[in-house]
Amino acid sequence: MGAGALVLAAVIVFVLVYFLLFPTSSPKPFSLTTAGGISTTATSATSTATGSPAGEPAGTWTIGSGSQAGYRVREKLVFLPAQSDAVGRTSQISGNATLTSRAGTLTISRAAFTIAVNTLKSDRSQRDEKIHEIGLESSRYPTATFAQSQALQVALASVEDRVAHTTVTGIVEIHGVSKRERIPVELTLRGGTLEAAGALTFPWEEFGMSAPSVGGFVSVTGKATMEFDLRLRRA
Questions:
Q1: Nearest Cα to 61, choosing from 18, 123, 112, 128?
Q2: Which has the closest alpha carbon to 84: 13, 156, 3, 22?
Q3: Helix (H) or strand (E) holding 15
Q4: Sign of the C-alpha dihedral computed for residues 199, 203, 205 and 209 taken in this order
């Protein structure tokens, strides 16, 4: 009885420390739009660009500085009703996209990106260590990839200095499992930077994963979100 009470007390103390003393500070989801138009995210992306007009967009565009991608999940502590977002991100992304422009229509005919998920960082080093072994298992599956499988067309005027909402179709590989997905994205072409932000939410089992649980008292809900903010410059 005494040993059980000590274990229970230790668990409660851990939960209180975790929840009260070290609250999760979750960054907001990536977005290029606000109620007032182009957001700070889009503006900051272009402030590091050349500052020159985008000009003719046809050609190859490669991942530039400021690009980020990662995960967002809802954490739940068994002994407390509150939930919070756990967010891990990395800037270790490579890839490029091929663009053509004709008669006022911008076409992204090819895009392929690789994310080094084994470099994901959150606000907790313990969480970062655990996802190497459980859930994402990034030690076994160190990368996630996207390969566009269908050309994406938007009106050029809809993305020049403004944000277009569209959907990109391609093959997503996470945890060694490949799935064809349609991902909602926001696009903007501004100051020599092509920026794309979006997210894909899915059940863990869709990519052969199980929702992580730590010690039986810290767990995550049944869905995960992959989110990204890609900033491309002309090659």
A1: 112
A2: 22
A3: helix 2-16
A4: positive
- Architecture field, domain 26-234: Beta Barrel (2.40)
Rounded Cα distance between 71 and 136, Å, is: 10
Containing H/E element for 224?
A: strand 218-234
Are 103 and 43 in contact, with CB atoms under 8 Å apart? no
Calpha distance 132→128 (Å, rounded): 7
- Residue-wise pLDDT for 179-210, tens only, equals 999 999 999 999 899 999 999 999 999 999 99
Strand partners, 164: 187
Contact criterion met (CB below 8 Å) for 183 and 202: no
Contact 73, 86 (CB under 8 A): yes
Give the pairing of strands 68-77 and 83-90. antiparallel
* Interatomic CA distance for residues 110 and 126, integer angstroms: 38
What ranges do the domains of the chain cover? 26-234
Q: What is the pLDDT of residues 114-171, one digit of tens each?
A: 999 999 999 888 889 989 999 999 999 999 999 999 999 999 999 999 999 999 999 9
Q: Residues with Cβ < 8 Å from 73, sequence gap 6 or more?
A: 85, 86, 220, 221, 223, 224, 225
Residue 15 CB: number of other CB atoms within 10 A? 17
- Whether residue 224 contacts residue 200, with contact meaning beta carbons closer than 8 Å, is answered with no
Q: What's phi and psi for 163, nearest 5 deg?
A: -115, 130
